[in-house]
Amino acid sequence: MDIKDMQEDLDWLKQKIWLEHNAESAKKRFVRRGQVYRVDLGTGVGAEIGKERPCVVLQNDIGNFYSANTVIAPVTSKNSRPLPTIVDVGTLKGSDDAACLFGAVNLTQVRAVSKARLGDYITTVPVHIMREVDAALARELDLMHYFSDALTRNETLKAANDALKQERDASGRKEG
Questions:
Q1: Is residue 58 within 8 Å of 137, Cβ to Cβ?
Q2: Structure pTM?
Q3: What CATH fold (topology level) applies to the domain 3-142?
């Protein structure tokens, strides 16, 4: 281990102590799904994304209300290779119409973090992009077959419902 690595580890230890100190008050912080915050991810190990970067809150609002932690996915500025688990958000603008976020949500790096790690609020991801994030997360966690099965069942039930409505309407016309 060289001096630079040692200094980075000591800096992270200092930051971790500060985060622990603020963890109790951070529990009360209410965040919403789809919001983007600067998040201190600490020092990554191996291919983990580290340092401070924008992250999208993935956890549902009820979980965010009751939990001291939340589930996030980092936004990266580079999307060197298109993957089905990385969602381009393009350039999102803030309330002052200035660009405040550019990049892609990396769903291969999802993790739970203490709310104490959340820094400043940046913006909220639009609903149509969050739908893409949901689909990419389902792909990352291999849940797409559940959605496919649910869609098939839904289409079958809709067809049966439509058939019953047609039958009811036809019988109503015969009686009148």
A1: yes
A2: 0.71
A3: SH3 type barrels. (2.30.30)
| Residues forming beta bridges with residue 35, ordered by sequence position | 124
State the DSSP H helix or E strand holding residue 105, giving kind and residue range, or none if neither. Answer: strand 99-106
What is the mean pLDDT of the segment spanning 77-81?
Answer: 68
Can you tell me the distance from the alpha carbon of 55 to that of 169, in angstroms, rounded to the nearest whole number? 52
At which residue do the structure tokens 């209410």 appear? 30
Average pLDDT over residues 7-33: 71
Q: Can you tell me the distance from the alpha carbon of 94 to that of 117, in angstroms, rounded to the nearest whole number? A: 22
Write out the two tokens for 95: 């309330």
- Reading the block at residue 74, the tokens are 């980092």
HSE of 96 in the Cβ direction (CA atoms, 13 Å)?
5
The DSSP symbol for 97 reads: S
Question: In sequence order, what DSSP letters do the residues of 53-72 get, joined into one string?
Answer: EEEEE-S-HHHHHH-SEEEE
